[in-house]
Amino acid sequence: MTAGSDTVLELLPMVFAAPGEALARAEEVLGDRPPALHASVAHQVIGIWQRDFGDMRLALSHLRRARAWAARADSAEREADVLATLGVALVHAGRTRQGMDALRRGVERGTGHTRARVLFRRAYAWWVLGHHKEALDDVRRAIPVLRQAEDVIWTARALTLRATVHLALGAVERADADFTAAEALWDTTGQEHDKADAVESRGLAAFRSGDIPAALRLLDEAEERYAKLGTPTFMLNIRRCEVLMAAGLPAEALAEADAAIRALDGIGGQSTRKAELLLAAARAARLADDPQTAIARAALAVRLFAGQRRAWWETHARLVLIEARHAAGRGSGRLVADAAAVAEKLVALGAPAAPEASLLAGRIALDLGWTADAERHLAVAARSRRVGPPLARMTGWAAQALRARAAGSPRGVLEACRRGLDVLDDHRMTLGASELRARATAQGAELAALAQRASLASGGPRRLLVWSERWRATALSAPPTRPPADPALLSGMTAYREIAARAEEARQEGKPVPALEREQRRLEREIRSRTLHMRGAAPDGGDRFDVARLLARLDDSGGGQLVALAVLDGRVQVLLCGQGRVRRFEAGPLAAAETEAEHVQAGLRRLAHPGAQARLPVVEAAGRRLEELLLGPAAAHLGDGPVVIVPPGRLHRVPWALLPSLRERVLSVSPSASSWLRARETAPPPGGRQVLVRGPGLATGGAEVPELADRYGGATVLEYDDASVPRVLAELDGAALAHIAAHGAFRADGPLFSSLRMADGPLIVHDFERLDRSPYRIILSCCDTARFATVGADELLGLVTALLPLGTAGVVACSAPVNDAAVVPLMLALHKGIDAGLSLAESLRDARATLPSDALHRATGWAFTAFGAA
287 CB contacts (<8 Å, ≥6 apart)? Predict the structure, then answer.
């Protein structure tokens, strides 16, 4: 490349517009024995590329050569510019003193416009180091000069940096103004890398203002832009980890951070970024209940930050290290002092995380019984309860609740918990995806537990019921936002079905499917990513749970009882609601009940095969033990009417009809009392339309469907090629009754990809969420359709829980593998009761009674459950 100086200088802005092309041209310049000035520019371009996208050792080597060639060219301005680039690289390499010295000399050597660019880069280095005041001072000095020189690119960079510093200090409105101004400038340039960085920055701003769906959408858009340029995205990885953690997805954040660390180590990348990724990994591990991993990552981050002289970052890493040690059970007076010292340091640094450190110090002091120390620290943390983003305010309300508990004020505890959970409710309702709503509840688990303990101590069973409902299955309290008519999302779901169907066909033929499985996983990630972008409706307060209304509806339903199971300090509390009152009984340990429920599930799996008759007494005995653990003395007070069970999420796999006191009853299950009330008050759609669906590959061929078609006469029957996902969804929308005979598959690793197999591939939970109104009653005569993943505080994700908020008032589904042939007579008997005007629960009870008494048929009857109230 032999063009003049102006052409060679164009390589510098090109490195952020077209990095690969800039690198190639710079190497071409060096191959032509260039003059000193040109050689300096070319080495600087290669150094920038290696600094940001490659090996730091190579970056430093090229930048030192760039400086040497600038000195030979006798250009003070060129040397000042290179010193600035070198200084930033040295800071990223962890050589803080050398880097800041190079930047100081660059400021001294440069004049006018060049000096302003050097000041910007020194401001950037101050930001990396966590010296926010110094960063603001330098960038504020640079911006007027850059504007006066009409330097659009560097002005936009300076505004973006100033906005980022404002965000670090919690000044969201100032940051928004600078980001908006910078974006307007970027629109006039061809700087594609900087444009991607602007989108990434907007994602960070959206996150800081509490808009998680927008943050995820913008970060994904930035990643797509970076991918087109072929550049690594370590800063974006860090920011996405923050958002994923706030969204209740810490395990995913940990996986992303660890993968980025491996990639960074693989290219010999920036030491500063590695330390920041280690901090993100430590935070994620702590939130994922993995304190040992958190301790290891945080301790290494502390050492790196200390060596890099980055006090801001080191202090934040120390906070996570103390949190992880506390979570690992290492409470001590030294830990209280360490947390208090971190809180003071964060205040001095102007860091928004200071209340978290004060809360931690207070929490550890309370555990040690140091009430005076605890009160001092908690009072400081509680000041954040009225200002800032939602999660910061929740920190304040948690501190206030702990203060009230220490002061012996149950009323104060309940008020603080109510206010804190109200903040989280408002935050959750901004999330459109049901998965995010469910997972976000984990952030209120402590407040909910504090309130339950306080209500039990001071208000009796009725108040305990109210607070149990306050934080039970809240993700079902409102329908998820309907997925947008996004062509990319729709085409992705169609492609997913096709790939999944091809993979299933290949498996049946005994062919290898790794390539198809990789593509299926890729499409799953794309679908999930797009659904997480959905923003929820503005919070409207919703209906508060009313005990009197519940008791009145129970009386209206034939004098039935609702059994709500709460868990306090590891034991099951039974709240028996009915006959105008709420009574409390204490049952057994939750852990023992979970273990027994797993034994029962294993027993039912064995009974699903012929020849297991001898196992029947074992399973029945396990059912008796389960009843003692889950109902205890309450079993003797159930009366003769219908029973509604409201279990905690961790007991969702209990086959309730196996419990002796429930076997002959009209029995239904609901995720919450509020959910049961809503189902009870849901009116069926006009027209009474019935839909019968028969999927492929069933051992019986869905033998009940033709007989049901004869019973219902005008029902819509979808089978063979007609049982395609689009056709099935169209017919299900607004139906009064739907019966689906199809293979079910539960996905514990991705519950919203749990599916029913249709002619053209899987019908997944995401598909059901596209319905305007799901069927009023739906019967799923296949295995595993009533299995759920437990997430958040007490939330369930699965097929049934997707249907209940969408207009379905009653579901019959199965929580265990069953014998296909034994299902057919159960389903025919069930529909006989429905046709006679009975509810699903009544029909299922009567259907069980018609089955033969052998183990196979009895296990089949126990495996099915009626959910809801229709």
Answer: 245, 250, 253
